[in-house]
Amino acid sequence: MALLAQELATPATAFLLPARDPINTARLACFSPRGEELALAPHAVIGAATVLAQSRAPEILAHRSVVVMIETPNENCACEVIRSRHGAVYAELALSRAPVRREAEISAAALAQAIALDAEDLAFGMHEPRIYDCLGAFCLVPARSRSALERARPVKAALAPLLGEAQGLYLYAADPIDSDAAVHARLIGRDGAELSASGEAAAAFAGAALEFERPSDGDHELVIEQGHDAGRPGRLTLRMEVCNGALANVRIGGQTAPIATGVLQL
């Protein structure tokens, strides 16, 4: 599976296997383009859930939502799958944890140097660079505008030492292309490669959204657009339930659509 993931070189390659526990729908093994197995990739779980719901319960999905239980290496994930009247299929994953801030010193000047921008480009409103960890640690960096974000170019020699244990640099701006989105984002990996929609980074971003936007108690929804600069535009929906000023529930969702089918000759 790792070798196939390296050969396909997609942002994530997921394999559906029989569930170890028969009460669950399936087991998921997911790999990065480098062949590393991922403990939990929400975007891959969302895609797998829509495939399972459409293939195993199409009649039920035509009338109501279907809940799919997927086993991952560390936990079982519940995904609710919904088909709209227009045929679009949407799945939403409930996370079992909330993001935690890493108390690490972050130099705006060093960050700017690592992505060929000016330090003045890396802030808006109350937002400042932070490292948050939920399904993985990410360095979250606000950009002054989408224009500044688009100008960012990773300097590989400076990027990896700056990130430390963080998986990547998540740049975001409150200047989206689509009017119904909240932020426009880019994810740059440790090797300088740009990644398309990432559920792990979106989960970490919930921490920054809570810290800087200070939403009131209740349910909140943010649409994140990502991948435009990598040539693979996508959208993820981040839902946050806030209780007593803290995150009580975080959900990641998105629509999927098949783009290819095929057979691998092994």
Description:
By secondary structure, the chain is an alpha+beta fold. The protein folds into two domains: 2-94, Diaminopimelate Epimerase, Chain A, domain 1 (Roll), CATH 3.10.310.10; 100-252, Diaminopimelate Epimerase, Chain A, domain 1, CATH 3.10.310.10. The protein is built from seven helices and 15 strands. The chain has a 15-stranded mixed sheet that branches. Helix 4 runs antiparallel to helix 6 (156-163). The longest helix has 15 residues, at 42-56. The protein is globular, with a radius of gyration of 18 Å.
Q: Total number of helical segments?
A: 7
Q: Which regions have little confidence, pLDDT < 50, spanning 5+ residues?
A: none
How large, in whole angstroms, is the Cα Rg? 18 Å
Order of helices and strands: HEEEHHEEEEHEEHHEEEHEEE
CATH homology superfamily of the largest domain: Diaminopimelate Epimerase, Chain A, domain 1
Biggest sheet statistics: 15 strands, mixed
Write down the CATH topology of the largest domain: Diaminopimelate Epimerase, Chain A, domain 1
Mean pLDDT: 89
Helix content: 10-25%
The backbone outline, from C-alpha atoms, is globular
- The domain count comes to 2
CATH architecture of the largest domain: Roll
Query: In CATH's first tier, which class of the largest domain applies?
Result: Alpha Beta
**Spatial separation of the terminal alpha carbons:** 11 Å
